[in-house]
Amino acid sequence: MADATPLRLASRVDGAAAAPGLLCCNSLGTSMEMWDPQVPAWSLHHRVIRYDTPGHGASPVDPAASSLDELGRGALEVLDAQGIAVTDVCGLSLGGLVALWLAVNHPHRVRRLVLACTAARIGTAARWEERADAVRQGGMAAIASPVLERFFSHGFVERDPGTVDRIATMLRGVTSAGYADACLALRDADLSGDLGRITAPTLVICGSEDVATPPAVVRDVHDGIAGSRWLEIPDAGHLANLEQPETFATAVTAFLTDEADSHLA
Questions:
Q1: DSSP alpha helix (H) spans, 63-214
Q2: Is residue 3 very low, low, confident or very high in pLDDT (cuts 50, 70, 90)?
């Protein structure tokens, strides 16, 4: 079912109302549908809450949403609209930073944390300024091709062109203003000094072929969070949940439900 928060963020809930919550936070340039491959498995055990970042998917542009703080507050409003006080959180890339922000600033609301293909600081300020300027001047078409190249491994582009086309359509459907605002949030976001404050049990996931947040960068997140678990998914690029959907879904389910999983270190 679709809902609206005070910020009018489009959202969807799957799973039993009495099940524990699982908030899914998207990457830059995608919508809540990026989690479609995982929802059938996760909704067996969780009430899965997905939402669209401002200016992405079905959510309208919010001029205030150009900072990580505002993006984090938007996520909280989605939870509040569903009456969920404590939840598991899974975020990928930009969504991973939002998940980190929640765990740092509202630890009482995060039960378990999954951080995928992300970092405490992603890229450089100059890079995000350039990306925002390019979108403002040339629209999403100006950055679509290079972004897609960074989303997926070369092997996957050849193996599953249908999924690549679906994400390309999703990317091109993002509003220029919403994308540029999110770039500004990434420009300024830096939680490097806060990783040691994370108290929620955490699983950190990377794709072995990710060029946007390479394994060495993601590993810094794992090293900075005491007691966190680590999973590197072979043959997966930045959108690892789409390249290896079953591996991703199974590992997250095992972690969130306390099931033993020999793949997690």
A1: 68-81, 94-105, 125-138, 144-151, 154-159, 161-172, 176-188
A2: very low
What is the predicted pLDDT for the residue at 64?
84
Residue given tokens 């999954």 in the structure block: 114
Per DSSP, what are the bridge partners of residue 234? none
**Contact by Cβ (8 Å): 208, 235:** yes
Q: What is the pTM of this model?
A: 0.94
Phi, psi of 46 (to 5 degrees): -130, 160
d(CA 183, CA 187) in angstroms, rounded, equals 6
Per-position DSSP letters for 17-46, written without gaps between them:
TTSPEEEEEPPTT--GGGGTTTHHHHTTTS
Q: Which domains does the chain have, with CATH numbers?
A: 2-256 (3.40.50.1820)
For the segment 101-108, the average pLDDT, to the nearest whole number, is: 98
For residue 85, count other CB atoms closer than 10 A to its CB.
10
The residue ranking higher by pLDDT, 5 or 243, is: 243
- Three-state DSSP class for 240? helix
DSSP character for 52? P
